[in-house]
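REVIEWER CHECKLIST
Item 1: Sequence provided? yes
Item 2: Single chain? yes
Item 3: Sequence as submitted:
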Amino acid sequence: MGIAVYNFFLVPLDIVASMVLVWYLVAWQALIGASFFLLVVAYGSFAAHKGGKVRHQSAAVTDKRLEIMKEIITGIRVVKMYAWEWNFTDLVAQIRRLVYQFGHNRTSSLLSKLSTGTGPRWQTPK
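Item 4: Structure as written out by the authors:
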């Protein structure tokens, strides 16, 4: 544990030393590459954070739907006996619409694709 903490504090010094060395070898183009790299890292972190929030909200809605489905299945005899199928059908349909909105939200799918690096792929003809 001690070595890991020691190395953690040396990381900024290592980055600065690497940048100085690359500046000496490559010149000003090194700053362009390093700034692009930092920009990509920052964007990936931002997209992953936002995607995590969306997944958390989606999981909450899915948990609610699963809880209602469990209650329906547990009490299916009572539901059938009193002919409450339509009431529960509407309730499940509402919750499925919410799950669908989270699962097929363009923002959430775009964030997850961009944060993991799996963007749109072009298929080549065979």
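Item 5: Key structural point noted by reviewer: Residues 40-114 form one domain.
Item 6: Recommendation: ____
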